Amino acid sequence: MGNNKLESGFKITNLLLVESHFSRINNVQFGEDAKNDVEINTEVSVNGSSIIVAEEVILVQKYHEVEQVNIKVKMIGIFESIGESIIRDFNEFGKVNGAAIIFPFIREHITNITLKSGIGAIILPPVNFTNASK
Predict the structure, then answer these.
(1) CATH code at 103?
(2) Model pTM above 0.85
C-alpha cells in the first residue's frame, strides 16, 4: 500500500454556488454564426491559512449580433493550507490553483442548465489558469 499523506498542501473545505442566472430568448437560433463570448473573473481573499476564491463566469451567446442566451454563474471555494506548503503566495494559489479547481464545477453547472433549457449543451472548453493569471 502507498503512503498517501495529506500533511502539507491545500484542501478545499467548502464549495458554494452563490449566484446562478440564466435567460434565453424564445426562439434560439443555432448555426455556425452563433458565437459565445465568455468572461471569467476571479477574486482572492486570504485570511491566515484560509484562501477564499470567488470565481464568476459570464457567457453570452449571440447569433447575428442578437443575444440568444445570457448566463452568469458565481461560485466560492474555501481552501485551507495544511502543514508546511511549498507555495508561499496564497493569492497566486487562489488565482491559479483555486480557480482551476472551481472551474469544472461551473462548467458542469452551465452544461446542465443549458441542457435543461432545451437549447442543447453548451460545454465550455478547459482554461489554463496559469496563463490566464499573467
Answers:
(1) 3.10.420.10
(2) yes
Q: For 21-60, give one letter per residue: b (16+ CB within 10 A) or e.
A: ebebeeebeeeeebeeeeebebebebeeeebbbbbbbebe
Instruction: Tell me which of 42 and 5 has the higher pLDDT.
Output: 42
Domain with 35, as residue range(s), is 9-117
Total count of domains within the chain: 1
Residue 50 domain-assigned? yes
| CA neighbor of 109 nearest in space, from 74, 78, 77, 79 | 74
User: Over the stretch 58-101, which tens digit does the pLDDT of each residue have?
Assistant: 999 999 999 999 999 999 999 998 876 666 789 999 999 999 99
